[in-house]
Specification:
622 residues, alpha+beta, Ubiquitin-like (UB roll), Porin, 21-stranded antiparallel beta sheet, three-stranded mixed beta sheet, disordered N terminus
Length: 622
């Protein structure tokens, strides 16, 4: 194959072997560079790529270069998102559904080949005490029914809806037989349950929390939880509970009731009935909520002297919406592009409020709010693996939302106009997944803007990088929030605390009207597991800055957090992922320097929007 090399070997010119080895190393480096450049070029030329790749596959045996190039590109293609394959349904499209056969499987599969009998006995014991999901519950979640015509888009959407249920591990819907001579066909729905009973526990020096949740009560898909909070220093206990009945009478209405009492004896009671725009293939939504809240909050007067204040209120909210198709076409984009109209009414009635000295703008006062929005939206979900779960198909949302919101708020004997807008877009690109969100809104009083807000955020994650059996994905999430003409009170200021800033950061006195926050997380996916549990290591960096009218970002300090830990998940259990993490804060103003905290980072910091058309609301300012 290489006459030149053979002649060298025949002449036994060993001094040239070193030169040849060096040349081979250079050639491999050039090959890697060529692969990188060719991939970047070919991504922008899809049709040429297909022809070139087929030609490369045909000629891969001609020389080692073609074979090496083909194998590397083929491996890279495996990490790309999986677009829903409708080929199997095209052959049976428009046929009548004769029967729907539903098969529910236990969460833990017994390996008949494995010699580990103890492990199989444990799985068998767990399956024995697991109550399977009722077939009727799965059937009620399907968007298609017996005697309907087969619609591949509706079937794929049904599969997504069922996969999103917390008590379902995996689902596959497929036709049984495809004889062209028949005008009807059976549909098989194969479901794998998740283990639905899950405890959670965390403790610190001052408090301990324990919660027990059941996400599939008696196999009916209902959720129930109870929790207990303990003050370790005062030996005081409080509790809470919640219950959710999902998909009442096949309407996709969800009924929820919950009660929570905190250690400081504040409490919250909620009861709600809600149906969101959970899919683009349904045309109406409804929501109502009644809540009673008693809260204790630290407020500051004009001299910045803190004091613990109380308030109690009843809150009632209701609203709904309707969606209309833009086009009568049958393509997925035409069927999922709709115009949405929604309205929302909120009323707050206070029993008692904080003292005027600590609430001079009367933020805690009776109010009535009416909001309405009109917008256009399109959503589509792409199946992908190894994003937030290991080796499990996840539905990653893509599409766009654009809406306009207007309304009035009646408060403190004033009627104030509100106008706002929201734009959201998400898609897969050759460099990864990118989602962007922009919100802007303002109140208008006497032809002047008041309490205006602007928020922009981006969520990005790369394609998978493979290093042996390990896989790595990079997440990036920057966000900027700007406030204009805000009220001169701490209640109308931004902080870096909690979920809307730097996780684990705590400083009640560091405030501003403008904020920049950015998060970077390198997530690894381990190839091994222990009893179904996976420990996926990650590295995290978060930074943030605050600004106000007296201090620009240029003169604001950058506050940082460095984190390392493990996100722990289970392939067969329904509870959320949790983590063991250590975070280092070089500086927290007013607290100290070089601070180390445990479990400061939350595992849901990079969660994606579900791209449901949202309720009318004010622009995000938190």
């Amino acid at each position: 194959m290489y006459p030149f090399l053979n002649s060298i070997y025949i002449l036994k010119a060993s001094k040239y072997l070193i030169i040849i080895k060096m040349c081979q190393i250079k050639i491999k480096l050039l090959i890697i560079f060529a692969i990188f450049c060719s991939n970047q070029l070919l991504l922008s030329q899809k049709m040429d790529t297909v022809k070139w790749f087929k030609k490369l596959e045909k000629n891969k045996k001609n020389n080692r270069f073609n074979q090496y190039l083909f194998e590397n590109i083929r491996k890279k293609n495996k990490t790309k998102p999986i677009i829903q394959n409708n080929f199997v349904w095209k052959k049976v499209n428009c046929k009548i559904i004769r029967h729907i056969i539903i098969q529910i499987n236990d969460p833990f599969a017994i390996d008949s080949i494995s010699k580990n009998n103890f492990k199989n006995r444990i799985k068998d014991l767990a399956n024995t005490y697991h109550i399977k999901t009722k077939e009727k519950i799965v059937n009620n979640l399907l968007l298609f029914h017996k005697n309907d015509e087969i619609d591949s888009l509706i079937i794929n959407e049904s599969e997504r809806i069922i996969r999103n249920q917390r008590f379902i591990h995996e689902i596959e819907i497929k036709p049984i037989g495809s004889d062209a001579s028949t005008d009807s066909i059976d549909i098989a729905v194969n479901v794998v349950d998740s283990w639905s009973l899950s405890p959670s526990f965390n403790t610190s020096i001052n408090t301990s929390n324990f919660q027990l949740s059941e996400n599939n009560l008696l196999g009916f898909g209902h959720e129930i939880y109870v929790n207990m909070h303990k003050n370790n220093t005062k030996n005081e206990n409080t509790f809470g509970f919640g219950y959710t009945a999902n998909n009442i009478c096949k309407t996709f209405l969800n009924f929820k009731v919950n009660y929570q009492k905190e250690i400081d004896f504040s409490y919250e009671k909620n009861i709600s009935l809600e149906k969101n725009f959970f899919t683009s293939y349904q045309n109406w939504s409804f929501f109502s909520l009644f809540s009673q809240q008693y809260k204790k909050i630290v407020l500051y007067n004009d001299l910045q002297i803190p004091d613990l204040q109380n308030y109690k209120l009843n809150l009632f909210e209701c609203g709904g919406g309707y969606a209309l198709r833009v086009s009568n076409g049958n393509s997925e984009s035409q069927r999922t592009t709709k115009i949405y109209n929604m309205c929302r009414f909120i009323t707050k009635d206070y029993y008692f409020t904080p003292n005027f000295e600590y609430d001079k703008y009367r933020i805690f006062s009776n109010e009535n709010t009416f909001l309405a929005s009109i917008g256009i939206a399109q959503s589509r979900f792409i199946k992908n693996k190894n994003v937030f779960n290991f080796n499990i198909y996840e539905n990653i949302p893509t599409g766009y939302i654009f809406n306009l919101t207007s309304g009035f708020i009646f408060k403190n004997n004033l009627s104030t106009l509100y106008l706002g807008s929201k734009w959201t877009h998400a898609a897969f690109y050759h460099f990864g997944y990118l989602s962007a969100n922009i919100e802007i809104g303002s109140f208008f009083e006497q032809n002047q803007t008041k309490q205006s807000a602007f928020n922009a955020s981006v969520t990005y994650f790369t394609n998978l990088f493979k290093f042996g059996n390990w896989q790595i994905r990079q997440f990036i999430k920057p966000e900027i929030t700007l406030g204009f003409h805000r009220l001169d009170t701490n209640l109308d200021k931004l902080t870096l605390n909690g979920n809307f800033g730097i996780s684990g950061f705590s400083n009640a006195n560091l405030l501003g009207t403008k904020k920049i926050v950015f998060n970077f997380q390198t997530q690894m996916y381990a190839p091994w597991k222990v009893w179904g549990f996976r420990l996926n290591p990650y590295f995290n960096y978060s930074g943030g800055m605050l600004s106000n009218s007296n201090n620009s970002f240029r003169h604001s300090p950058l506050l940082s957090e460095f984190g390392i830990g493990f996100i722990i998940s289970n392939d067969f259990l329904s509870f959320d992922t949790f983590q063991i993490s250590f975070s280092f804060f070089p500086k927290i103003p007013g607290i100290g320097y070089n601070i180390l905290k445990t479990n400061a980072i939350k595992s849901n910091d990079f969660q994606l929007s579900n791209y449901e058309y949202p309720k009318p609301s004010f622009a995000h300012y938190q």
